[in-house]
Specification:
Blueprint: H1 3-6, E1 14-16, E2 22-24, H2 27-31, E3 46-47, H3 49-56, H4 60-68, E4 75-77, E5 80-84, H5 85-99, H6 104-116, H7 122-172
Antiparallel strand pairs: 1-2, 3-5, 4-5
């Protein structure tokens, strides 16, 4: 491993605490559920595909897919992919977006705005809020549909039990 792979560079969107750990102050922190205590390696600037896969508990195939979809842009050193902080953040945002139900197109849009605004900006946050609102409305619609379906199931079950009880009573008498 070269020195450049082990030398940290300061991130303008993070702040150091007295214990030396850093905390995101940019868009990554808004979408992230991971804490700074689970950082891959705070002193490392680049990562291999295997390291990212292990850290985010995904397959290397998943990472290559996101690369193919234009969400990640690792450097190449021969046949080796070299991922920088920007790729790590993009992967983190992509995985978080998928967990929130975002499409790849929505994730790409938000992540590209993140890059364009160098870590977030008004346009990106406004779009993110719009997407979140759309997702929330969709979930509320699904919840209403599920509640109605559950009432229908309860109604059919009640009628079936009543009919069965009547049939059992008719056969006894």
């Amino acid at each position: 491993m070269t020195d450049t792979m082990m030398t940290p560079s300061p991130d303008p969107k993070s702040r150091a605490t007295p214990d030396g750990t850093t905390h995101d102050t940019g868009m990554e922190s808004l979408l992230s559920t991971t804490s700074t205590s689970d950082a891959i390696r705070p002193t490392q600037r680049t990562w291999s595909i295997g390291e990212l896969a292990r850290h985010f508990d995904v397959t290397t195939r998943t990472i290559r897919f996101y690369e193919q979809e234009g969400l990640l842009h690792p450097e190449r050193r021969g046949q080796t992919r070299v991922y920088r902080d920007k790729d790590r953040v993009r992967l983190k945002l992509t995985l978080r977006g998928k967990r929130l139900g975002f499409s790849l197109a929505e994730i790409r849009e938000v992540v590209d705005l993140y890059d364009a605004a160098d870590g977030g900006g008004e346009k990106q946050l406004t779009r993110l809020l719009g997407i979140l609102s759309e997702k929330r409305e969709g979930l509320e619609r699904q919840l209403r549909d599920l509640t109605a379906m559950q009432r229908e199931l309860d109604d059919v079950e009640t009628r079936a039990r009543e009919t069965l009880a009547r049939l059992a009573g008719d056969s006894e008498g």
